[in-house]
Amino acid sequence: xxxxxxxFEVEENESIAACIERMEQQGFRIAGRKEEPIFxxxxxxxxxxxxxxxxxxxxxxxx
Length: 63
Fold this sequence. Notes:
By secondary structure, the chain is α+β, with helices and mostly antiparallel strands. Helix content is 16%, strand content 62%. The protein has one helix spanning 16-25, and strands at 2-9, 29-42, 45-61.
C-alpha cells in the first residue's frame, strides 16, 4: 500500500474546518499541521503580518 502525501494551505478567508472538508472531498485525511509566520519589513524592522497554516493530508492507495 502506497501513501500519497500533500500539504494543503488554509486559504486567506477559509476556516481550518473548511480546509479539512476540502481535503476529505479529495480523498485525503489529516495527518499533521504546521504554522509559520509571514513577516513584512517596516522601517527596517520585521513585523508579523499573518500566519500561514498548512495541513498535511495522506491518501492511502492500494497497489
